[in-house]
Amino acid sequence: MRLMALYDLIMPVFPNTVRAEIRSLAILISGNQDRFLSVSVETVASCNRGCVYCPNSNQELRSARHSDLGSLVMLQGLYEKIISDLKSVDYRYKLAFGHFGEPFLDRSIVDKVAFARISLPHSAIVINSNGDYLTPDLLQDLVSAGVDRVIVTDHNSKDPSSPRPTSEEIQILRHHLECHPALGNYVVFNGLQKLSNRGGLVSIPRERRKIRSMCEELNSVNIDAAGNVVLCSNDYLGSYKFGNVKESPLAEIWNSAGYRAMRQAHSERIFTEDICIRCISG
Ligand code: SF4
Fold first, then answer.
1. Pocket test for ligand 1, best of 38, 100, 215 (most atoms within 8 A of CB)
2. Distance CA 180, CA 178 (A)
3. CA dihedral in degrees (50, 41, 200, 193; nearest 10)?
4. Which residue's alpha carbon is at the smallest distance from atom 2 of ligand 1?
5. 20 to 30 A from 84, CA-CA: which of 53, 158, 178, 236?
6. Strands 149-153, 228-230: pairing kind
7. pTM score > 0.85 for this model?
8. Is the CB of 231 under 6 A from ligand 1?
9. Angle, to 10 degrees, between the axis of helix 19-30 and the axis of helix 2-10?
């Protein structure tokens, strides 16, 4: 842990946009790997898009998911409980807003970022978005609230079948950030390169498939809008739930026998869950 103590000391010199990665790297180098370094929270489960490479595009799957979740918006008390659980373990790694919903459909996203920032001063707060609702003013509010990075995936550039074939919003934002480079440090634009088949729920042409030989989510926690801790970012239907943060502290869920056994098996590249088998085989 001496490496982490050193990191804590020198952390202020790193730009906030790279803190999460550097911290994760330090943890991995230190050899203490069975801990969560990334927590993804779905404060809203709906999305304004229906991209063909996302299970949200399948009406049947989407209806099944939404009815299983009950409310599409995470209750404020539940969100505060998650942050409180993280605070209680002095969590200092990545807190991401995302999963399968579009975070900017959450009208209180700025307040949620501010709350997380106060409770988790050393965490890297990241928002994953399609960018449709990210205006320069909203970005400025998020930065003031304490966000570290907004990752905007441009779904228009490689998805001609998108219901919104042009991306005027992203162009406006890009232009604004060119004129305000300090604000631009908080935004990363992602194009779509390789795509996951989402545990077999969507069909991806072979040349665009992301081929995995190992699980990339051994240190990640994914919490859906109902508070379920699910298998990973591909588990759209919550097929594998390890607990619910409404009922148990997050650290207790992380250390539960079933969750630990799954991580151990995946670290040895043993995959028995059907969505994992489909994920790994591409
Ligand atoms: S191998 Fe399984 S747990 Fe890992 S990313 Fe794929 S579906 Fe998720």
1. 215
2. 5
3. 70
4. 276
5. 236
6. unpaired
7. yes
8. yes
9. 160
In this structure, the residue with its CA closest to atom 8 of ligand 1 is: 232
Q: How many A from CA of 221 to the centre of ligand 1? A: 12
Beta carbons of 61 and 53 less than 8 angstroms apart: no
Q: Of the residues 229, 231, 266, which should be mutated to test ligand 1's pocket, given the most ligand atoms within 8 Å of the CB?
A: 231
CA of 142 to the centre of ligand 1 (A): 31
Give 61-89 as a DSSP string: HHHHHHHHHS-SB--HHHHHHHHHHHHHT
Q: Is there an atom of ligand 1 within 6 Å of 201 CB?
A: no
Length of the chain equals: 282
Residue 214 CA: which ligand 1 atom is closest? 1
